[in-house]
Amino acid sequence: MTRSTTASAAAPLPVPQERRRLREERSLSEEQVATAVGVTRATVRSWETGRTNPKGQKREAYALLIAPAGKPQPSDSNTRPKITAKRVARPSPPSPVPRTPVRGTPQTSTPEPSTPQPPVEAPGSTTMSPTEPDTGTYADHPATIDHPGPAGPPGTSDTSDTSDTSDTSGLSAEEAFDALYTHTAPGLVRQTYLLTGRRGLSRESVERAFQLAWQRWPEVAVDRDPAGWVRAAAYEYAMSPWHRLRHAHRHPDAPPTEPKRRALFDALLELPPAYRRTLLLYDVVGLDLPETAAETEASTPAAANRLLTARAVVVERLPELADPESPEEVSGLLHDRLGALALAEHVPTPAPARTVRMVSERRARLWTRAAISFVAALIGVTALTLHTAPTQYEQPLAPAERVGGVPPRGGPQKLTPQNVELQKALRAEFAHGPERLVPGIP
Length: 442
Hints:
Blueprint (H helix, E strand, L loop, with lengths): L2 H8 L5 H10 L4 H8 L3 H9 L6 H10 L107 H24 L2 H17 L1 H5 L4 H13 L20 H12 L2 H13 L3 H7 L4 H18 L9 H18 L8 H36 L28 H12 L14
Helix pairs in contact: 1-5, 3-4, 6-7, 6-9, 6-11, 6-14, 7-9, 7-15, 10-13, 11-13, 11-14, 12-13
GO biological process, one term: DNA-templated transcription initiation
Protein name: Helix-turn-helix domain-containing protein
GO molecular function: DNA binding; sigma factor activity
């Protein structure tokens, strides 16, 4: 029996549906668990959804992290993984054309080599690593525009994605929607601004996306990633080509005045919409490559090629981004630069959640009434047609037309004056007698 099999038997795990709940009870985010175990955040998510299961030492470490609070933990400090709040760099695509996974085979993420981190006093603490200086850049405020999630407990720095949702079983539909809107809308407006370069359109896209989410709230509430559902709807509305016909959104807004930010802004808007969206989802939001491909409705190799092409265009406009040697460093620099650009620009504040819900309900009532009116008008026109239509078929009369090729009409010709006198003489005589045979003409 191999070592991994023995370790798996020695460290039993709960069912996938309980793993996420146990992690949230211990106030741990996916990124913190991934850093402690030495894997990526996508791997932790696949463990919680049941697509894959940890093995070997990673299984033991993961079992210790999500163990129930009442279960005794080993006292050996060497076996307990350390939790830090240091942000882990997102993995970059391994090659321009990644290998497509075989259909039916669960796709697992490649684990990253774990690096020793100084422990903190409590899981979820916001204490920074001594090796990571406080530079005052965008890296200090990742939750402002990163893939947002519901607010965690006080004193917790949650930079994970929206799958780390809090327990909303005791909230009403309005309260759950308001919580999602309050936590997600401001950062989503800034993301949409980077996507379109138009402040008014970014706010309009986010509000329309949340209005659609409220209309379909039973579907959105049970979604695995409600904020991702709203983000996809906002991106689709913002990238609609019909906005070019609107005078207010025909041209982008004024670019930033600072030269470096303006160069980055121009390079971003020069990209095609699909490439720009892929770059934002991967380097700003923090999705992995398969999730980025799924949200952009593309294959994984196509998403990787778009990402590499977009990075090449941005690096060409900004030579300072070409200094890092590894793709991970380029991804981290783009994450900080794009985030700083979004935070530095003034974007309109979205409307309150209650206003968005009211507008959504008013729009739904309007469309419902319009549909009812159209159906009623259609029924009325059909009834009128049935009432006024004839009950039997009457063949129409063919119009008269001239017939050619017929000989002229025959018959008696016009009498001459002599024939007229003869006709009168015959009519004056008796009907019988020799005079009829040889009439005498005066």
